[in-house]
Amino acid sequence: MTLHKTPAVVEDGYVPSERRIARERHRRARTRRATAIAATSTLVVGAVLFVLITNSPGWTRTKETFFSAHYARVAFPQVLEGLWLNLRLLAVCGAAVLVLGLLLAVARTLRGPVFFPLRALATAYTDFFRGLPLIICLLMVVFGVPALRLEGVTTDPVLLGGSALVLTYSAYVAEVFRAGIESVHPSQRAAARSLGLSSGQALRFVVLPQAVRRVVPPLLNDLVSLQKDTGLVSIAGAVDAVYAAQIIASKDFNYTPYVVAGLVFVALTIPMTRLTDWVTARMDQRRAQGGLV
User: Fold this and answer.
1) DSSP characters over the chain
2) What are the tens digits of pLDDT across the range 245-289?
């Protein structure tokens, strides 16, 4: 008797049972139903918000002031030109923040009484700059450093603004790295020492690789925040995307350029956020399967 192949038959000869086929069919139907409900509810909420906003008494004036197509076309090229400065700040400051944050975290986790001054300085640094608002740090660095009139010290607002960003964000990143280092079980360090590695070698080759892998998602979140906060250098006079929008808006008191600049930052932030979510989900999956230490 010849056995006819069906789509349910796979190459190794396995034939799923009727119950499993029914279960998978039910799961697909439930997924389609949930997707349809989510899409419908989203459309309904969007329609309600659209009606409420467009029928508000001040919508006509708000539309002209914040959503002018003419000013959007005028502002878009200049905002993009200023955005190049934000991207360069993100690249340079992001690298500096990671290096300085890691050094601070290592300093705070050093053992032994001889390292107490270093631990105390690192702790004071992180406590101070985590508590100091970023905008105040920017103002102090951008306007305070040139007021000192120190010879050989730059007065470039871009460099000073970038330095303020590094000072603040390195304190946050240091705490992320420290949490990753302390999450590594002490047996890992003990095993490395039993194999003949020194304390420094155990930290470098055993503890830090595991710690860095564990804190990749929160580090990416900090970089997303840094990407947005690069726009604050505009208070120093640096012509970035925000300041370019401000120049156009101040001419005719139309705030559409600000909306354009905001949408440009959102367009940059969303891919980085989705990348963070993907990395987090991938690492959680590997950890659940036992493939991540």
Assistant:
1) -PPPP-TT--TT-----HHHHHHHHHHHHHHHHHHHHHHHHHHHHHHHHHHHHHTSTTHHHHHHHH--HHHHHHHHHHHHHHHHHHHHHHHHHHHHHHHHHHHHHHHHH--SGGGHHHHHHHHHHHHHHHHS-HHHHHHHHHHHHHHHT-TT----HHHHHHHHHHHHHHHHHHHHHHHHHHHS-HHHHHHHHHTT--HHHHIIIIIHHHHHHHTHHHHHHHHHHHHHHGGGGGGGT--SHHHHHHHHHHHHT--HHHHHHHHHHHHHHHHHHHHHHHHHHHHHHHHHTT---
2) 999 888 888 999 999 999 999 988 888 888 888 887 887 777 777
